[in-house]
Fold:
Amino acid sequence: MSDWSDPTSPAEVRLERETMESRIVCQARKQLRQCDHFRCHCHSIDIEYQKGHLVLMGRLPSFYLKQVLQTILRGLPGVERIDNRVDVVSPTGLSSVKRHASKE
Structure:
């Protein structure tokens, strides 16, 4: 039997993993679009998934939305851990983003 017909070849395993990762990210985005809180904020959230680890990045206007975001995605099948790196930046100037000291 040649390597290309082996259903567990490294290339097929990688493709299956990438497909599963893509499916989980798509499912996460779908859940956000269905939530009233995130319909207008979906574009400001980036989602990455790898080996059970969901990473959330981007900006939201409140700490409340940051927590709701994590809660909504917590129950996704295949997600073992969520790393919520979303920054809170509100129109009032409050922010969770740390400023870098300027070098003079």
